[in-house]
Amino acid sequence: MGTIRTEVSEGILVDHPDHRDFLIPFLNGFYVTWGRKRRDYNTEVFVYFLSPEDHFKESYGIENEILLVYAPYSRMEPRTIQAVEQIMSTSPAKGRVETLSYFLLTDCPDVDSWLDGYLSSRQESRIIVPFYKNNLIQAKENSDDWYIRNCLNRHYFGRDLFNYSLPLIDDAYFFGRQSILMEYFDSVKRRENKAVFGLRKTGKTSFLYKLKRLCESEGEATVFYYDCKVPHIRKSRWFEFLDDISKDVSTHFNIEFSGNYTEKSASRDFEKLINNLNSNGHKILIILDEIEYISFVSPKDLHWKEDYIEFWQTMWSCQSRYKTLSFILAGVNPSVVEKDLVDGVQNPLFGIVSHKYLTGLNLDEVKTMLKKLGKRMGIRFHSDTCEQIFQWYGGHPLLTRQACSCINTFLSDEKEKPIDVTVDEFLKNKDDIDRELVFYSDHAVSEIRQFYPDEYYLFELLSVGQELEFKEFSRDSSEIKHLMGYQLIREGSNSYEINIPVIAKRVAYESRRNDSRDMLYPILQPGMRVPWLDRRITAICSEFRQLERFIKKSKQPLLFGPNSFPEADQLKSIKLADNESNFSFFINSLNRSFVESIEIYGNSIGNKSYYWNDVKAEYSYLWSVLDRIKVYRNERDHLHLDSNNSEKLTRYLSEDFESRSFSTIKEPYFVLQQRILDRLLLVLLKELDRYN
Description:
Elements: H1 6-9, H2 12-15, H3 19-23, E1 30-40, E2 43-52, H4 54-60, E3 66-71, H5 78-88, E4 101-106, H6 111-119, E5 127-132, H7 133-141, H8 147-156, H9 178-189, E6 194-197, H10 204-217, E7 222-227, H11 231-234, H12 238-252, H13 266-279, E8 284-289, H14 304-321, E9 325-331, H15 335-338, E10 341-342, E11 345-346, E12 354-357, H16 363-377, E13 379-381, H17 383-393, H18 397-412, E14 419-421, H19 423-436, H20 438-444, H21 446-451, H22 453-463, H23 467-473, H24 478-485, E15 489-491, E16 496-498, H25 501-515, H26 526-554, H27 568-572, H28 580-604, H29 610-618, H30 620-636, H31 643-656, H32 668-689
Helix pairs in contact: 9-10, 12-13, 13-14, 16-17, 18-19, 20-25, 22-23, 22-24, 22-25, 26-32, 28-30, 29-30, 30-31, 30-32
């Protein structure tokens, strides 16, 4: 049972003793720690801080004190909400009370319906839990210890805090990014230029809004934000856009607008404006979001291929002369600031704009978001569940939130809140969740597909499992740097790996649909197979011999002994596996050349476990495919498979057939032949990379 602290009892309650009547019901879960009268927005209210007891902290995820505002009016007005927002943003509430929600107490009997109407178009607003004063007094008289808890359950558990997809325009739901935020804020103070890039919906625009609020609240700069993808901007010529910016700036600072802003005069007119600002001590920050749309990579408005140079030559000239102007760019890809020449002309942004990628939230930030918002909704995410969600959605803010919104919807239909979300619950619903997220997954990479098709193609190769082709195309590739910057891929021990599986899954399905394929992994068309088979066998033999030379030179355990693998001529006679007989010949030939020959060499040196122990430990990539060959060969020859090898056979077939049965695959024997040879060449290249 909570109490009313002495400073409250001997302070505000001395002048307003009747307030005890509505405060007492809150003592079933809270301590009343502070109280004052405030006047903001021509509205007088009473403000109390409530500190939750441990069981309320656990039930609702309330970590700090919560604000209780009493508005003693029988009619609700928007200015009451404005007054509360002002209170939340100033001392002593700022940094002390919960930012996600507050309690609003009023004499208005229709406060619930009024709030429903007021908040209907304000999805991002804090959770406001309304209380009608007479109901609280009645709860006190009836000794209703559950009244407050029931109200919280109704207002907290009934709202989906995850289901928000627009940029965040205030701080209530802004998670993480503090380090990069302060870095960019410091740059603004030094009048330095910055850029931020990343996938769509990673929170770039929310980050820019947050930076704008910070700059303006601290008085460091007046911020002018422009979304460059809107038609009236991207369809403007460079001097017309400069004219629009100048009018906005002049209007804000009450400066008489001057200049014609023609193609010839615009740069001079804009410089006069910046000189005026500089003389009067004004500092401005221009934020240009979706910068690709007014750059040389724009696929829609081709005039920006030339206008880009004119626009930024003007900006850079003004900034170099007057330290009153800085700018921040945002987009998907840093090519606009990395490329030194644009059609033979020096890129004005090259070398003057440092940049970072705004990537997904890290694991700790995801855990904080899920647990804080989840508890407020009556959903408890277990720590290992948070980790699974992080691994599958890569910390992507929108995908993570929308996935959790789906979890809330699915589980709320089955269970009463509060609900525990276990790993099993998540995995059971994952496919259904991903179907709901198809649009968002596609949207996340839509601009890479539109503006940077080479990068998208590389990611598509990795998404459908074509690691061999990815490896060949990505050597010394600048596109890889960008894909890693987006955190779509990451560098593994000896290869690149998918970092956001849900997006890769969507890209793979889209690739299959576009090509009308039967499988995600592209299987060669019949007319291409004969020359492919010859090239693939030749390449495998060549890479094996190269690997042997490196092994001998490095004095590592030999594969086939002092001589190379046997039956090389037999490998050349392998035919397309268009039937069971040809596949049996194929798999037996590979087994004799590359598996049995290792076992024979091991026996010759008195080590019967040489293949199973030494080779497996030293050449793990290669061994994984050799084992697949051995298991498939044993199954073809109807040899007895123990439980371990039976499990391997099931797993290997599931991987090669993408979890489908043998009978549902078109040309299953060739599918196995292509998958095995592709895998074998890939692992040989991985083994060779160890020596390069």
